[in-house]
Amino acid sequence: RSVWGKGGGGGSWGKGGGGDSWGKGGGGWGKGGDSWGGKGVWQPMFQKTWDGGKGKGKSKGPKIQDPTKVVWVGNVPAEATYKELLELGNHAGSAKWAEVFQSKTGGASSGAIGYATAEEATQAIAMLNGATVGNNTIQTDVYTRKSA
């Protein structure tokens, strides 16, 4: 007597088991046979699947839009955090972000500090070169991408 689909055993609108309770039973909306698409979980057609797309593995370094606004920082202590580098960058201007690149050999690392303008980055290179982070004297320079 089901109005919706072939649920079997329920009333209209999926009331299950012949009574007025919703849920179990063979109603059109409940746990019926193959009404409204049958077995499995309902998924919208526009749902993105995560297999077979991009995003495999880690990216190789930061995604830097404009290298003229970025300062390269060398001889950064291995235990340094991006927060320490960002704080250092704020002494020379308003640093937007910082990142520490861990050394593969376990020694001193390098990093990058991003600024809003190229002028701030140029000023920061001059101000921060020779500054001390931990026990290390850092070096600063213009940021250049690694050639593959």
Oligomerization state = single chain
- Arithmetic mean pLDDT: 75
Helix-residue proportion: 10-25%
Q: What is the rounded Rg?
A: 30 Å
Poorly predicted ranges (pLDDT <50, ≥5 residues)? none
Q: Can you list the strand order of the major beta sheet?
A: 2-3-1-6
Tally of alpha and pi helices: 2
Give helix and strand order, one letter per element, not per position.
Answer: EHEEHEEE
β content, as a range? 15-25%
Shape: extended
Task: Briefly note the structural class of the backbone.
Answer: alpha+beta
Number of strands: 6
Q: What's the N-to-C terminus distance?
A: 69 Å
Largest sheet: 4 strands, antiparallel
Describe this structure in words.
With 148 residues, the protein is an alpha+beta fold. Helices cover 14% and strands 20% of the residues. It contains 2 helices and 6 strands; from the N terminus they run E-H-E-E-H-E-E-E. The chain has helices at residues 82-90, 118-128; strands at residues 70-76, 95-101, 109-115, 132-133, 136-137, 139-142. The strands form 2 sheets. The chain has a 4-stranded antiparallel beta sheet, with helices on one face. Strands 4-5 form a two-stranded antiparallel sheet. A hairpin with a 2-residue loop joins strand 4 (132-133) and strand 5 (136-137). The longest helix is centred in the C-terminal third of the chain and has 11 residues, at 118-128. It is extended, with a radius of gyration of 30 Å. The model has no long low-confidence stretch (mean pLDDT 75).
